[in-house]
Amino acid sequence: MSLAPTDVAEPEAARSIVIERLIAAPRELVFRAFTTAEHLAHWWGPSGFSITTHTFDFRPGGVWRFAMHGPDGRDYQNQVVFDVIDPPARIVSHHVGGDDVEPASHETRITLEAEGDMTRLTWRLVFASIAERDRISREYGAVEGGQQTVSRLADYVTLRT
């Protein structure tokens, strides 16, 4: 996926949100938590959110359409297209905005590195511009929500070790 060009060359690091965490579970188990809608239903989204998956095709070019149900009763429609799946080390996807989904476009790069029997997760969201990163952070609470999502993932896989 190629993000829309910006008027000013903005470094990728400045257009990104990065969440890193050491998870007390093996890399293969952490990777597996991303591979089915059944797994994702247990942990995807910030605290208080749940999801309903409409379609899930976990392969390069496959699409995941889902609704995130907020604690305030609002539904957030989402569509993700998987670009790279490299088990158990990496998943690259892009969130597609549009008429029937949330107006948010970005690339997501998830990397998993084994550290003994633990996993170093790096979750990087890359936006087209600093302004878009700031808008998503402000309107959707992306930083705090991302941290909560990673915590829910860690809790989910830790219970399965």
Characterise the protein shown here.
With 161 residues, this protein is an alpha+beta fold. The chain has one domain (14-158): Alpha-D-Glucose-1,6-Bisphosphate, Chain A, domain 4 (2-Layer Sandwich). Helix content is 24%, strand content 37%. The chain has 4 helices and 7 strands. It has helices at 27-32, 37-40, 130-140, 142-158; strands at 16-23, 50-56, 63-69, 75-86, 90-95, 106-115, 118-126. It has a 7-stranded antiparallel β-sheet. Strand 3 (63-69) and strand 4 (75-86) form a beta hairpin. The N and C termini lie far apart (35 Å).
Detail the topology: elements first, then pairings:
Elements lengths: L15 E8 L3 H6 L4 H4 L9 E7 L6 E7 L5 E12 L3 E6 L10 E10 L2 E9 L3 H11 L1 H17 L3
Antiparallel strand pairs: 1-7, 2-3, 3-4, 4-5, 5-6, 6-7
Q: How is this structure best summarized?
A:
The chain has 161 residues and is α+β, with helices and mostly antiparallel strands. The protein has 4 helices and 7 strands, in the order E-H-H-E-E-E-E-E-E-H-H.
Beta-strand percentage range? 35-45%
**What would you give as the CATH superfamily?**
START domain
The CATH topology, please?
A: Alpha-D-Glucose-1,6-Bisphosphate, Chain A, domain 4
- Mean pLDDT level: 93
Residue share in helix: 10-25%
Contiguous low-pLDDT stretches (5 residues minimum) are none
List keywords for this structure.
single chain; 161 residues; alpha+beta; Alpha-D-Glucose-1,6-Bisphosphate, Chain A, domain 4; 7-stranded antiparallel β-sheet; 7 strands; globular
